[in-house]
Amino acid sequence: MLASFVRKITEWFVVLFVASLLIWFVLTQPTLPSLNASEFEVADASNLQQHVLALTNAPRMAEFDNLRPPARYIHKRLKEYGKARYQPFKTAIGTVNNVIIDFGPDTKDVLVVGAHYDSLDGMPGADGNASGVAGLIELARLLSKQDDLPIRIQLVAYALSEGQYFGTRDMGSFRHAERLKARGKKVVMMMSLDSIGYFSEQSNSQRYPYEFMRHFYPSKGDFIRITGRVQDVLAVRKIKKSFKKVEDLAVRSLNAPEIIASVSSSDNTSYWDQGFPAVLISDTAADRNPAYHTLSDTAEHLDYDRMARVVQGVGQAILDITSGFEEPNMMVAQKDAAK
Question: Per the confidence metrics, is the pTM higher than 0.85?
Fold first, then answer.
């Protein structure tokens, strides 16, 4: 009798242990430390700070007059690194613009990196999301030095994402993803940069939407997180491995159902709607930053050195994801040789 009871308890313990192990693996996607250093150039922290300061000097709320100045600033900065262009679209507040710059050849395959430039209710929005846009502009500077990209890399600053516009067809990211789909483009990966500048070394500075997550993640908010749906496991692992090549950057990941707010809280959702793979790269925003979506979310609270390493990680992910694609001129040469 006792032996039977002990056996049942042991079986339940094994089941719970295995279940916990599976939850840990699916949620966090553990990877080994990388033995390779990043091949992508380190971003310039002073450039990032300059862009955040410029973007937070005036309101960027979802009103026509407030969206024009940041769009002009982003366009002006991106023009320094290539052919930047506006992508206008009509909304209830008038015609607003995404701002786009392309690198690499005009291929059917496209890799997208995006960040929204509006802020909630006229808040300074340094972390949310001047940080993501600053990272986008600095990434453009670094990509302009790459002369052997095999596919089209498209960087996009989106007009509308916050507040009442989130989850609607008026999101700049929705309009961009919709147009790519209509043009027959294949998005091989989309990376949404949304709040990438706030880090903390204080214990218990990191909060979680569910208490059980504290058993799987650190108490310090000192890491960048790569987030995707359960079906994005392989994509998240690949990008996480790229980020791990960056020196002195703590990287965590989360794969979970879309119903969890922290998984589906940014522009990556617009690409899921079109059937494209997408991930969110974030400092976890409100789960860490007490100033997020408040008047205190200002430029002096961001960690620009760590932001620079996040941008380097995005650049390395671009190199790694596109490494399996052949350059179009190489493919033409191979076809000619086969004739």
Answer: yes
